[in-house]
Specification:
The structure holds 2 protein chains of 2 kinds. Chain A is α/β, with parallel strands linked by helices. Chain A has 14 helices and 15 strands. In chain B, strands 1, 2, 5, 6, 7, 8, 9, 10, 11, 14 and 15 form an 11-stranded mixed β-sheet that branches. The longest helix of chain B is centred in the N-terminal third of the chain and has 16 residues, at 72-87. Classes of the chains: A alpha/beta, B alpha/beta.
Chain lengths: 422, 424
Amino acid sequence: MSGKPPPRDPARRAVVTGMGAITPIGNDAETFWRNLADGVSGVAPISAYDASNEEVRIAAQIKGFEPRDYIDFKAARRMSRFSQIAVAAARQAIEGSGLEIGEHNRDDVAVVMNTGGGGMVDVAEGQETYLQKGPARVSPFMVPMLSPSMAACQISIQNGTRGPVITSVAACASGVQAYVEAQRLIEHGDVDVVITGGTESAIMPVAFAALANMGALSKRNDEPEKASRPFDAGRDGFVFGEAAGVMVIESVEHAEARGAQIIAEVAGGALTGDAFHISAPEPSGYGAALAMQRAVRDAHLEPEEVDYIAAHGTSTPLNDATESKAIRSAFGAHADRLAVSSNKSMIGHTLGAAGSMSALAAVMAIRDGCLPPTINYETPDPACDLDYVPNSSRAADVRVAIINGFGFGGQNAVAVFKRYNG
Amino acid sequence: VTRRAVVTGLGVVSPVGIGADETWSALVAGRSGIADITLFDTSGYDVRIAGEVKGFDATQYMDARDVRRHDRNTHFAVAATGEALRHAGLLDGDRHVVDADPDQFGMVFGTGIGGIGIMSDGIKTLLERGPGRVSPFLLPNMLPDSASGQVAIEFGLRGPNMAVVSACATGGHAIGEAMEAIVRGQADLMLGAGTEAVIVPLAFAGFQQMKALGTPIDPDTGAYDPAIASRPFDATRNGFVVAEGSAVLVLEELEHAKARGATPIAEVIGYGSSADAFHMAAPADRGEGSQRAMRAALARAGIGPEEVDYINAHGTSTPLNDRYETMAIKEVFGDHARQLKVSSTKSMTGHAMGAAGAIETFACVKVVETGCIPPTINYRHPDPECDLDYVPNESRAADVRVALSNSMGLGGHNSTVIVRRLEA
């Protein structure tokens, strides 16, 4: 694994041609991006259930999402919310890309749709029914609905795609892994098109109780919009959120043959493991730095060519300091010339969807020459000493952007996006 | 130079035995691992049998504190991995990995559901005792990737790490993706593995309500017999039996294995993946999606259908699966289907969901290594629509060069893995 990866077939480069999103700050990709660039927070008091007596009462919830706008009523009823939002975002991405899926190409379209927990909500509902009413009242749809792979399956079923359907789970790194996998499927000629992204929806009491008891969540209940403050010295944990982000990614030759508009290129990626602890990052940031270095090398780029990092930046004391250290160790002196920001300052941490949010931010930053900010950055932390694009967006020529995702258990994933130059 | 992925280590925890040798000798002997459920009180349930892993003491494999915090699926994963690494000669006495660069050693460790046991316990705690009593370890340890994370931590493996999820097709996807990672040069060593522990009250209620489970009644005598419940391809089959377990294959780049003097057991040469795009729970007509997965795996392996000698079938023992899988095999293999030996080891292990494809690829590796094919047990009544050679009831010696493992999952996932005897 030392030295350059083998040269790439230019025709099999992977490019982005469509985007979709259901998020706490907008239910399509363009609205999401506009609000991200404007520094709008999607964090608010929890409305999904009565949290008034709980230790943590704030979340980044999706607002005004109507499954029926995207999915037949009966099918929607048998789909968990994490699948519904994924199907909706996929539909937007496919429509935006102008891709027609039919007999001529359905075997060559793959779905890679990742998640952290899948249908945790269905497990909770099922368990409540089971405890109160007994096993015979548990829904026959519970098992298929809760399966983490079901968002991918439903995208395949709803759109009639028959290539590989893959779900991989790497906790908070899941979303980033999807793009790494998609790029490889295209590069190696397995398929021509991949519908890919991440989804998560688990705004439910047991998840909040468990995360709060881990000490992972911000308790700034009285100032919801200020609660997620990555890299700020006053950060006290992450805000849990829900979202789905999807892209249509295809080979250059396929995109060009059908005259599709190419938005950016997925240039490469890498995965590594910390082999350290179930929830804490390894303190030197070795695994995270290794993933960034390998991803850049996999993309046939030099570290100095990276302009922007969509950071994992969760707003926990440990992650943000370790990630800053890892960026320094991966990029050396260039770390001071890089722009780094965390969209989690606005949409919270959407676990398995987080990487898909950063992917959208990276692609839009390249497309529009605009760096989205890290909001709520008020007090510098000596352990976090990079340029975090504080509080307001900034115009910049972004040629190469990388996205970081680091998961519970020490799974690190980094994907590289770059401007498409033909 | 093409990189080749060979198998250098095996580890298994299954309903028919703890350990690869135990499991293999049970499969060859045609021993069923299906019995009455002991893991929870089944009063109130219609179906009370499963393929449980018996006599498993997690504290033999993990620190007692970690055992308490983790789900049973993670316990299985750690136990099977330890065995596989030791078998591969990669573990020293202190459970440290030797003879390998940990940055070049990763895994694709799949599961169908992950920690549903600790998740349903957590919800019970929440409902009965309030949020303050929910374990802080619940969330990281219930996620489907907690086994892959904990295995990496236990053994210090720092290379590419993924947990694939595709319901009952998971195991095949995990081994296939691990093979691809080696061939593509992402790592020199990868675990291809699956794990599952779903014999918990809530999940079992869900399975029961799907009305897809086999019953422990002898179709001829009417006698109660858990071991008869899984009877793939038999005309009287009426459903699958839920099981649990884990299997781990150590995949290694051939030159890497040679350089450290390891003995390759077999080569993983093909992998295919497809979707039905049809229905959440039922397979597509005539196993159309599975046909495409088998064809893709043959193409990836660069071999013709006539080179395959043995198929370890998905063979769940549901009426529809076994009929469609038979049709799919006949479509893909044509006249050669008559020469093929096809067996379902689920007749003995039951259906271990996300671990099934890994346990069955393990069986394929043993078949090409030993030249012995494990049988489909409980096969008494031929079904006119299932008319292949299912190696009924008794294992059979055969010269098997190439073996193929099929897996199909809820949601319409299909995965196929092909292994070949190692030839100089």
